[in-house]
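Fill in residues.
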């Protein structure tokens, strides 16, 4: 019985990990070691990954958990700028416990959420080996360190659907049931999801009971009105930008062919979903005759509820309209270590927003839907009473986990000005950081 927030069991359907410096050093074998990603430090103490002639920030992407709010715009540029839980699995467990999070699905960071850096690498033979090294680390090291606390998530060689299908089988044999893909492959120069190119991958997904995870920002752009637009306006619309990809995947023919296919829209939010489904059904009713729609006998909303899971960080409106979304289609996400994350106070924010729901609905949203979609059962390794918010926080308290905000430094979008930060300011900050890295490399 759930009496208060301490009785909740919370699984996060979307978190992130900053790849540790020794990841590929430990897991890459053979000739692929010659070109593997290498962790570097420039003359200014900034970290970056060097990979096949290109440089990628080692951190960044707003990994600002544990900082005071006024530093949320300071983009981290080294591991020293980060809370240790961003890259160290033992510290991550501390941060999960103090936040009452029972289990977590973790996307990569510097490799892009879906491993895009490997899919654009020139040496595809080596890139495949580096993808496999990452997956081995994710499954055998990060997740295996604490069984039942992490949900393995693999990346794929999307430039070769047959190789991707083979990697799906390989990671499935290792106990992984989740893969990260791009919501729009055409952005990376690949065929659209409606092309027969992907048939081997769809079949492998079905054969090995995989869940496809589509994280915001892995394909379709998140548009902003102008470079002078306040960055807060851009941040406001980011979850709703997922609608473009959601509509595209909803019309995927493979969903009709494989009734058990599962798709997760990570970091999507849920408040916009009721209108999205209403609009999809309306559009289908008015236009399906002349468009030769795949939805002739069924409504798009029906197919959505059979195949999709949507995730929220803080969404009171969406939860108030749960019946228009589907209680079986919603999961919680923490988004650690990004600035939207409510760490270390997730239970305090989540509990008031679910008071109107039944205990069954609360159980589904906090963990059962995630367990079902991700084919993941934390209770194989832990008793339920060991994974409640109260139990996890008690252990964190016994270990003395400190959540005091710490000033850590990093790049600033504005220097000496007091005005709304704009999209252009953020882009210029990123460009300046990249330029400094290029100069350091040439020197």
């Amino acid at each position: 019985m759930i009496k208060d927030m301490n009785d909740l069991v919370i699984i996060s359907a979307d978190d992130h990990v900053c790849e540790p410096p020794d990841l590929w050093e430990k897991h890459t074998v053979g000739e692929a070691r010659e070109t593997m990603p290498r962790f570097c430090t420039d003359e200014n103490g900034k970290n970056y990954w060097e990979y096949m002639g290109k440089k990628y920030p080692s951190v960044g992407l707003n990994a600002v958990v544990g900082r005071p709010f006024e530093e949320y715009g300071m983009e981290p540029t080294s591991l020293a700028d980060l809370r240790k839980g961003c890259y160290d699995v033992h510290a991550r467990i501390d941060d999960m416990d103090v936040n009452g999070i029972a289990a977590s699905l973790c996307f990569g960071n510097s490799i892009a959420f879906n491993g895009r850096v490997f899919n654009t690498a020139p040496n595809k033979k080596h890139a495949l080996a580096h993808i496999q090294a990452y997956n081995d680390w994710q499954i055998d090291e990060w997740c295996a360190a604490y069984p039942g606390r992490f949900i393995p998530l693999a990346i794929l060689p999307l430039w070769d659907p047959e190789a991707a299908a083979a990697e799906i089988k390989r990671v499935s044999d290792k106990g992984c049931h989740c893969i990260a893909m791009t919501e729009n492959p055409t952005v990376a120069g690949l065929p659209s999801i409606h092309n027969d190119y992907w048939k081997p991958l769809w079949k492998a997904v079905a054969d090995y009971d995989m869940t496809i995870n589509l994280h915001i920002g892995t394909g379709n752009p998140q548009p902003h009105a102008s470079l002078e637009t306040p960055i807060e306006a851009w941040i406001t619309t980011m979850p709703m930008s997922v609608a473009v990809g959601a509509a595209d995947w909803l019309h995927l023919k493979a969903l009709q062919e494989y009734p058990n296919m599962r798709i997760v829209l990570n970091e999507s939010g849920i408040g916009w979903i009721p209108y999205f489904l209403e609009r999809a059904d309306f559009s289908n009713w008015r236009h399906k005759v002349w468009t030769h729609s795949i939805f002739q006998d069924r409504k798009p909303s029906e197919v959505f509820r059979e195949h999709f899971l949507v995730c929220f960080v803080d969404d009171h409106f969406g939860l108030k309209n749960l019946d228009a979304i589907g209680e079986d289609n919603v999961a919680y996400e923490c988004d650690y270590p990004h600035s939207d994350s409510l760490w270390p106070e997730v239970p305090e924010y989540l509990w008031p927003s679910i008071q109107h729901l039944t205990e069954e609905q609360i159980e589904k949203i906090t963990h059962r839907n995630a367990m079902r979609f991700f084919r993941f059962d934390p209770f194989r390794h832990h008793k339920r009473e060991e994974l409640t918010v109260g139990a996890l926080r008690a252990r964190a308290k016994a270990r003395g986990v400190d959540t005091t905000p710490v000033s850590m430094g990093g790049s600033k979008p504005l220097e000496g000005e007091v005005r709304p930060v704009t999209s252009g300011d953020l882009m210029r900050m990123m460009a300046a950081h990249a330029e400094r890295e290029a100069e350091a490399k040439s020197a």
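Residues 285 and 299 are 8 Å apart (CA to CA).
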